[in-house]
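So, is this right?
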Amino acid sequence: MMDKNTVFAVDNELRRLEQRLDDLLSLVQQLQEENRALRNRQDSLSTERATLLQKNEQVRGHVEGIIGRLRTMESGT
């Protein structure tokens, strides 16, 4: 049979472990939320990047068309 000091020590250790588990669960929840936010941000940035690449290609085509017309005008004079 355990004496009072041993029971007290075991009880304290169990409380300490319970607190540590609670802290770890809170940390896991916080990290999950942060991960979710980062994934959403990554998705948003990927969409924005795709849009910018598309606009860049449109502008490139427009500029190339202008350059082509200028060359045609230049060779015509």
